[in-house]
Design goal:
328 residues, Spore Coat Polysaccharide Biosynthesis Protein SpsA, Chain A, 8-stranded mixed beta sheet, 12 helices, globular, Glycosyltransferase family 2 protein
């Protein structure tokens, strides 16, 4: 492969922000060999042409591809297929970070990692530095990292990871086709469960909100949001097939799945869908049967499920800031 890293940017109708997004991506890889792959999802404005002009005028290596009116997952898969970098990372216009990839590359050169992520708090960053001094930088297994995520000790963001390209292709890991919600969590879990070398870089991830895409009013999502539930179910099924402990399997069955269903309920109610219509969608798809509590169901989630199941007309959805991101 001819580059150290490939940056994959899925874009659609961001003509007023594409230059700022590409500036941010270029800052990430200043002074080392990088490839830029911009995958356009049927933009109706000048996004594609401005991206092409930017790459050409700045003398960057890469390409701008027209991918049609598919999902973000399909655009990301196209980028992975075309990538010529030893590693790859994803750049999302609505979720940008200050430069972190230089630290990631330093980390992988030390340990030859398959998958790298950063710290999301100063406390976590200090712990990573301490492990590094004690030569314990790398998580031993994917299940160990999953336990840390379950315990709230760390979290992963698809917009702030770096993955070895040969690892993805060798393990046939890709994003689920036609999936617009929940695709990131599913992809990340598949990566960490199959990677032989996981590493956390001692860098504190910080958002670059100044250059992020100013979305304006978001389109109505509707019943498509239940793709999020399907993605979590696929993760649960993957864990059932793999050699992970029962605690993690129960965590997904008794917390993440009902949590995902309630996240979808909240989104639909915030979109002003009537509760009877939401209940009808749940029954039609069978998701209502997933709203059960168990030993791994947190008390707050138990109360939400109970209120929704017994008196949905009294249920109040969580505010958007309290919920997980709608698209992930």
């Amino acid at each position: 492969m001819g580059y150290e890293i490939t940056l994959i940017l899925p874009v659609r109708n961001i003509e007023n922000d594409i230059v700022r997004v590409l500036d941010t991506a270029r800052d990430q890889v200043d002074n080392f060999s990088a490839e830029f792959i911009v995958v356009d999802m049927a933009s109706e404005d000048a996004t594609l042409w401005r991206a092409l002009h930017y790459i050409e005028s700045h003398g960057l290596s890469g390409m701008v591809l027209q991918n049609g009116e598919g999902s973000v997952s399909e655009a990301l898969n196209t980028g992975i297929q075309k990538a010529a970098g030893k590693y790859l990372s994803f750049v999302f216009a609505r979720r940008l970070y200050r430069p972190f990839l230089r630290d990631y590359l330093t980390t992988v050169r030390e340990e030859n990692a398959d998958f790298v992520f950063g710290a999301t708090s100063e406390e976590e960053q200090k712990m990573v530095l301490q492990r590094k001094r004690n030569q314990l930088l790398r998580y031993r297994t994917g299940t160990e990292l999953l336990r840390a995520i379950q315990a709230g000790e760390t979290r992963l963001d698809i917009a702030a990871v770096m993955v070895r390209t040969a690892f993805l292709r060798g393990k046939a890991i890709s994003f689920t086709r036609d999936c617009s919600f929940g695709y990131a969590e599913e992809f990340l879990i598949r990566c960490i469960l199959q990677a032989e070398r996981l590493q956390q870089a001692p860098v504190l991830l910080q958002r670059n909100t100044v250059n992020e895409w100013s979305q304006g009013k978001q389109e109505v999502i509707g019943a498509r949001i239940f793709q999020k539930v399907d993605a979590v179910i696929r993760i649960s099924e993957l864990l059932a097939r793999m050699n992970v402990d029962e605690d993690l399997r129960l965590y997904y069955r008794e917390q993440r799945i009902p949590e995902a269903v309630m996240e979808c309920v909240d989104i639909l109610l915030r979109e002003k869908m009537q509760y009877n219509a939401v209940r009808g969608l749940l029954r039609l798809s069978g998701y209502d049967k997933l709203l059960k509590s168990g030993g791994h169901t947190p008390k707050a989630l138990r109360r939400r499920i109970l209120r929704w199941n017994t008196a949905p007309w009294l249920y109040k959805p969580l505010k958007k800031a309290e919920s997980r991101p709608q698209k992930d």
